[in-house]
Amino acid sequence: MIPAAIQALLPQQPGEENRIGHSGAQVVMYEDCVLKVQPDTGNAANEGIMLRFLKGRLPVPEVLAEAVQGEMRYLLMTRLRGRMLCDETFLDNQPLLARRMADAAEMLWNVDIAGCPCSYVLNDVLQKAEADIAAGRVTIDTANQPETYGAGGFASPEALLAWLKTNRPPETLVLSHGDFCLPNILADEKGIVGFLDLGQAGCADRWRDLDQGLWSMWANTTGLFGGRARTFERNALFSSLNLPLDEEKLRYYSLLSELCP
Q1: What homologous superfamily is domain 4-78 in, according to CATH?
Q2: Looking at the DSSP assignment, which residues form a beta bridge with residue 27?
Q3: Contact 175/201 with Cβ under 8 angstroms?
Q4: Backbone region of residue 15 per phi and psi (left: phi > 0; alpha: psi in -120 to 50; beta: other values)
Q5: Is the backbone of residue 136 left (phi > 0), alpha (psi -120 to 50) or beta?
Q6: What CATH number should be reported for the domain whose range is 83-257?
Q7: Which is nearest to 2 in space by CA: 40, 36, 32?
Q8: Domain range annotation of the chain
Q9: How many whole angstroms separate alpha carbon 162 and alpha carbon 153?
Q10: Does residue 4 come out as left (phi exceeding 0), alpha (psi in the -120 to 50 range) or beta?
Q11: Do the domains spanning 4-78 and 83-257 agree at the CATH topology level?
């Protein structure tokens, strides 16, 4: 049952469920608005908070209404127009895809983070990871990459956490999207027109997004999620950003993500 405050604002015409993505949220698309329904976790609450903070700073949906009912959070937002960067238009043009990803990253990093209400600095993330391991929310079985643990990898999440604490790199804080993947960035022929799924957005080092973005470009380009496999140029994003590739930081943030369910 949709909360009355949300139901009153929905169009009479039925919406269409959007099944793109892997967040587990239910997303219903209407002509001019979007309803997102998901368990009332910290990330779900953060999304509305960050959308309000970013209003006027970035092209993001505007919050029309928000409600919690039972264990579910309902977020009604305006609908942004544009093509997701996982669209064939971009996947078939790797230089354009890299340029649009670079444009999106630079837009995020140019936002003034003074007063940003959400933080993903390493101190906070590592403390949360330690608590999640202790509570059993993070285990060997929750790993995204099979090579993280076992032969050639780490013995356990506790061992990985110890390594991350010992080898933590210096941070240069920017606005981080937190799920910097192709389906969460909208563009047209002129440039970036919108950012979606900002429940993990906040202050963090830019390599947090670069690790996610590079993986998403590789996964979508090579056909991991279906579709035609294409050649992936790993350095294209960094060339577009005029940024040297830092393999150590990429590896660090990739391993850190294993402890962030």
Answers
A1: Phosphorylase Kinase; domain 1 (3.30.200.20)
A2: 18, 36
A3: yes
A4: beta
A5: left
A6: 3.90.1200.10
A7: 36
A8: 4-78, 83-257
A9: 13
A10: alpha
A11: no
Q: Per this entry, what is the length of the chain?
A: 261
205 burial (CB, 10 Å; 0-12 / 13-18 / 19+) is: buried
Report yes or no: 225 and 88 within 8 Å, Cβ to Cβ.
Answer: no
Closest by CA position to 164, among listed 261, 258, 255: 255
SS percent in the chain: helix, strand, coil, step 5: 40, 20, 40
How far apart (Å, rounded) are the C-alpha atoms in residues 196 and 25? 13
Q: pLDDT tens digits, the chain, 261 residues: what are they?
A: 899 999 999 998 889 998 776 567 899 999 999 999 999 988 899 999 999 999 999 999 999 999 999 999 999 999 999 999 999 999 999 999 999 999 999 999 999 999 999 999 999 999 999 999 999 999 999 999 989 999 999 999 999 999 999 999 999 999 999 999 999 999 998 999 999 999 999 999 999 999 999 999 999 999 998 889 999 999 999 999 999 999 999 999 999 999 997
Q: Are 132 and 256 in contact (CB under 8 A)?
A: no
Q: What are phi and psi of 31, to 5 degrees?
A: -60, -45
Give me 123's structure tokens. 């101190």
Residue-wise DSSP of 176-198: E-SS--GGGEEE-SSSEEEE---
Taking each continuous run of H as one helix and of E as one strand, the counts in the chain are 9, 10
Query: What SS3 class is residue 58?
Result: strand
The pTM of this model reads: 0.94
Grouping H, G, I as helix, E, B as strand and the rest as coil, residue 240 is helix
Phi, psi of 86 (to 5 degrees): -85, 5
